[in-house]
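Quick start: read one record
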Amino acid sequence: MEAPRAIHADAIVTGDREALRDAAVIVDARGEVIDVGAAGDVLPAHAGAIVERVRGVVMPGLVNAHTHLELSALRGKVAGGAGFVKWVERMMGVRSEESPEDNAEAIDAAVTELDDAGTVAIGEVTNSLAAVRALARRGFAGCVFHEVFGVTREAVVAKLDGLEAQVSLRLGTWPSLDLAYAPAPHTLYTTHADAVRRIIAAAGAAHRITTLHLSEHASERRALESGDGPIADWYERMLKLPRAEIAWPRLSPVAYADQLGALASNVVVVHLADARPDELDLVAKRGAPVVLCPRSNLHIETRLPPLLAVRAAGIEAALGTDSLASNASLDVLAEARALADRFPSVPARELLQMATWNGARALGRHDLGRIAKGSCPGLVAIDGEPGDDACAFVLRNVRAPRRFVARRSLETKS
């Protein structure tokens, strides 16, 4: 039997607690944490372990809780800043010109980029399932959310009925036990209410995690509350659906989500960039996990999510990058750094927790995201002198090289 390994670091960022200085973590051959604490206590208690000294910081593998890897070929090709509807129109135009070969290469490169950044788990939102095999080959954990669109009931129900056949046709046998699968409504203004209810109910009955883009931009609020604005105009122009024929709920996005049962502990709500304090209080009351994607929001709408209001509501949000069509990279530490630059009052430890432990919890993976006995998070090292605040050191050195010092076993699952 392979001897346990001891990683002795100048500091260990735990993910869910304060960082430890001059600390050690003991892992077995599968990457499971046997012990963690002050080096002076841990190392003598595991005298037979093989010791690796890290002159720097060790932290848990990152969790990118919201991505769209199938859009990776669009990196740098879709201009933002003019609002969500304009961005979608540009994105659709550019995407129509991409070849399947270019898409496959871009997805493989994106998965490598995730791994190089120290990412171990992902919340992949997909229409095509194009990235699933690439993620499985590299041993990623997390969730694959199969999106459902359609504002007319018949069309969206037929699409929902055909999802299982689509998975079988494109993938055959599901390629990884470490990647959960669930259908997911795209948004409340692009997915018929009956389909939203059905997806949410099915996920709850099966004890699965699903997800929903929610309160991402002002045009979403205007459409749902008033039945007009850029989204209603787009439906009339592109889909030939007169706004009067759509049953707009005349509710805010968050209130409508609550009415449909979509504010629940197994429904990850993403963005909330346009959410108001009272709406955030309702999200918190219902216990829905939250993922913020600040750099994507900046690119598309030139605004950030209301982090201080999110915190004031008692929400412990996770982080995602969204797609490379609206972001420069797939690095959730860069998301944390973007928030640190604009919200300097938020502790660095809390921002790193958003990139690790909060994301793991949002995806239902309590074995990931923190360095604690019994967890199997993958361990990532960043070399350098951390000083008195290891978490601030990590955020200052987002561009520094990272390396895995302990990988998760592909056989490990919560």
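The first helix runs from residue 39 to 45.
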